[in-house]
Amino acid sequence: MTDKPPSCTFEQNGYMTIQEIQEEIVDEFSMFDDWMQRYEYMIELGKSLPLIDGQYKTDDNLIKGCQSKVWVHAELDGDKLVFTADSDAIITKGIIAILIRAFSNQKPQDIIDADTAFIDEIGLKEHLSPTRANGLVSMIKQMKLYAVAYQTQIN
Amino acid sequence: MLQTALDIQTIRKDFPILNREVNGQPLVYLDNAATSQTPQQVIDVIVDYYHRYNANIHRGVHTLSQEATDAYELARQKIQKHFNIGKIHEVILTSGTTHGINLVATGFTSFLKKGDEIVVSAMEHHSNIVPWQMLCERTGAVLKVIPMNQEGELIMEEYHVLLSNKTKLVFCNHVSNALGTINPIEEIIDAAHKVGAAVLIDGAQAAAHIKPDLQALDVDFYTVSAHKMCGPTGVGMLYGKEEWLNKLPPYQGGGEMIAEVSFEKTTYADLPHKFEAGTPNICGGIAFGAALDYMENIGFGAIAQYEDELMQYATQQLLTIEGLRIYGTAKHKTSVISFNIEGIHPYDIGTILDKLGIAVRTGHHCAQPIMDFYKIPGTVRASFSFYNTQEEVDKLVEGVKRAQRMLL
């Protein structure tokens, strides 16, 4: 892709809230006219997702989604929760990249309170269907569970 | 153009669903091994049942009940004729193949003892593995597996070595759902009988392509699902030899399957009702009969020939794609092509194809042992029916190429 939006990075999200990041993602996707462009962008995002540290790609961190596998790891950095993840399917990985961009480097309580309606707005709703068997629904649940666990630790 | 006696465009008009669009594209339905589509002729029978004579069967004296009973029993006769079954009461109507397998597996519990052996093939659907594992757990019997080669064919020499006087049961699918291999069931049945073992053949994948003669096969049990052969879901057939069905205990208790009931003792009904407890899928059974009529009318010989040509064409075209590997290259196979492209997860290909309106199955196809054998997470599976066209194969090939360009 040559017309990749400039804000597509996995660097620290500065001081943007989850809500602001989600709006930014929705803005980026609004420039695409058709599904091909959305998917090509998502595939690019998937390919550029930083690799999860090998030591965390364990069965313990594995979410079995029947068709594609998803690994998620979380650790606390100060008062913020940092997620890393991976999948064996690239489209699943693309959505993981989007979710990580929205939820990583955020306070656990904000992650607990956040929703994923923006996925619907960017036309990728079908990937978060509970019957999709790609592990993403379980991944979001797992991210929230991590947030709850670390919030308890902070308290 | 493919040479065929079938008028595919006229046949396609029988299937209303083929007119719909998916994601703004005309539907290309290539998941026929999972379930086949339903022709208007069968849909009409379903609607007519609920419009005119919906009633419970085998017990009412009123007219509707009589009509429904007659229609349901006529369907049983059609099934008997289609599969060339000797006696009408050897046709057990079930909820599908899985039901039929579980009925037999559960029934054999009291016939097996520790050390007895059960033989299954390496290319079974989970529904033809798990019930036998459960049977082994209950009885102490041991499960033995007929291995397969890289082409996806059973290694028959190994099968013959596995058989002994300890072998009590042999289970195998007629056609593999994941690979399309047509298994040599005649040889499997004959050899099992020589050591005194009973044989169950899972015909779920075969029934839409092959018309088996169950008397000639001399098989002990054969089971199918209507929804793989233009009928509705939730109904199927278990054939069992009369001597076996008389020996097997009932699978479920309930109404319909009894002769007399008191709190001291119940005597069971005669075949086939002994195995048909409760109100069955009446409409489904009647529609199953209509589906057989529909397919018989087109002709199984012509169907098999056309589907084979379609598969050969699809195989040739798909193999032009760089990095594409087909799993299941048996000499004898039905119209199933399981494949992967190097470096791409099958889920990703399936997702892109869906955006193009092309329905394929991705994943392990409920046959994880096969995926383990090839050391892959799954495959993309395109499966063809007689209503698919050469143009649809071309769309599949184009779609796969497009997915490859996007994903690599």
Structural class of chain A: alpha+beta
Helix content of chain B: 25-40%
The biggest beta sheet of chain B is recorded as: 7 strands, mixed
Radius of gyration of chain B: 22 Å
Strand arrangement, major sheet of chain A? 1-2-3
| Helicity range of chain A | 40-55%
The largest sheet of chain A, given as strand count, sense and whether it forms a barrel, is: 3 strands, antiparallel
H and E order of chain A: HHEEEHHHH
| Average predicted local confidence, pLDDT of chain B | 94
How many beta-strand runs of chain A?
3
Inertia-based shape of chain B: globular
> Would you count the extended β strands of chain B for me?
17
In the CATH hierarchy, what is the class of the largest domain in chain B?
A: Alpha Beta
H/I helix tally of chain A? 6
**In oligomeric terms, what are we looking at?**
heterodimer
Give a quick summary of the entry.
The complex is a heterodimer of chains A (155) and B (408). Chain A is an alpha+beta fold and 155 residues long.
